[in-house]
Design brief:
By secondary structure, the protein is α/β, with parallel strands linked by helices. Helices cover 48% and strands 14% of the residues. Bound molecules: S-adenosylmethionine (SAM). S-adenosylmethionine binds next to α7.
């Protein structure tokens, strides 16, 4: 992209899409914090101490967020993917999701106070999903199980990350582009495990519209949402399945991706899932894991990583931040290639060794 006019047009399109979006979610975060402050004052300072804020960490976060956006734009300019369309929906959809988000906050807060983490484990759900799965992750209403939870999820995640969750997800695309380079996309095959509402697969299809892709997730409601979100694309299959037993033959696909899922799994399940990914990859195939930074990746953020699971119900996060992923992957014949940081997340790249 050497032509200065098309370069300018790209930058303008990128900015007009991303900046209002970030302002929208940062605005939600601001209002959410103000509401929390009001509740805190009503309850009295001693009932709930004010969360600590460190200006130095805030500055770092802002700088790392800016670096993420620069990288996102650089990837576009390098032709790795087109100027991203986040497909957040119409203004009405956005307002409706916003209403869902704010309406849930008192219930989330109440669950946090009571440490109520197992509301979704009941006579109807027991035994239908693994025990670890039947929790109110993030203290959210419905856990992973309801339509409302699926419709609310992306707003929650974007608010948490100030509108950069999708930009972080897109940082898993460059190592995919590397793996796909020189191949006919129609003959490749990708599986996204724990695909949730399908946001990452949307960006995969924006880059490779004719790539056959399978998304799987244990939540019926999230898969239904993903089907609606991804209906503009062909050659995409979305199924309810457990990543501990991926419904695909051995050595049958070129890439497996997992976005923001591993920190939600108990350690033994996490390792089984990595083993499953290795099993379905063909020799030379690529596994891309994208999730939170781990302890020690950015020492400045270690305190934040320590506090995160106390505020949001994240029962396996502490084991995630200390997991030695290269060692786990090696056990399954996956060679660690590199890690790339992306704001508060990172992308880990592994290749299945031949033979
Ligand atoms: C934090 S969400 C991440 C969703 C999505 N990948 C994203 O980018 O936002 C975790 C997802 O993992 C799914 N999940 C958790 N355990 C799973 C398992 N064993 N098999 C398949 N999906 C699972 C949940 O249903 C949920 O949709």
């Amino acid at each position: 992209m050497s032509d200065p006019f098309s370069r300018l047009a790209t930058r303008l399109t990128y900015a007009t899409r991303q900046l209002p979006r970030m302002a929208w979610y940062a605005g939600h975060l601001y209002v959410m914090r103000r509401l929390a402050e009001q509740v805190r004052q009503q309850e009295g300072e001693s009932a709930r101490p004010k969360p600590r804020s460190d200006p130095r960490i805030d500055q770092r976060l802002n700088a790392d967020m800016a670096a993420l956006l620069e990288q996102d734009l650089a990837n576009v300019e390098a032709g790795i993917y087109p100027v991203p369309a986040d497909h957040d929906g119409s203004l009405l959809t956005l307002l409706d999701r916003s209403r869902l988000f704010f309406r849930d906050l008192p219930d989330v807060d109440d669950r946090r106070k009571r440490n109520a983490t197992r509301e979704v484990l009941n006579a109807k759900t027991r035994g239908r999903r693994p025990h670890y799965y039947l929790q109110n992750f993030h203290f959210q209403s419905g856990g992973w199980l309801t339509e409302e939870s699926a419709d609310r999820y992306d707003t929650q995640v974007e608010v948490l990350f100030r509108g950069t969750a999708n930009a972080m997800r897109r940082q898993a695309l460059p190592p995919l582009a590397e793996a796909f380079s020189g191949h006919d996309q129609r003959k490749l095959r990708l599986i996204d495990i724990g695909c949730g509402t399908g946001r990452f697969l949307d960006f995969v299809k924006q880059a490779w519209p004719r790539l056959p892709a399978l998304g799987l997730d244990l939540s019926e409601a999230y898969i239904r949402h993903a089907r609606r979100h991804l209906k503009r694309w062909s050659r995409i299959n979305l199924i309810v399945a457990n990543a501990e037993a991926i419904p695909a033959p051995d050595n049958s696909c070129d890439a497996v991706t997992s976005i923001f899922m591993l920190h939600e799994l108990p350690p033994e399940v996490r390792r089984t899932v990595i083993g499953e990914a290795a099993r379905v990859l063909r020799p030379g195939g690529r596994l891309i894991l994208m999730d939170s930074l781990q302890r020690g990746d950015e020492p400045d953020y270690d305190g934040m990583l320590e506090r995160f699971p106390q505020h949001y119900h994240e029962p396996y996060y502490q084991t995630y931040v200390s997991e030695d992923f290269p060692a786990v992957a090696r056990r399954y014949g996956l060679a660690h290639r590199r890690d790339t940081k992306a704001f508060v997340s990172k992308v880990m790249v592994f290749d299945k060794e031949a033979g």
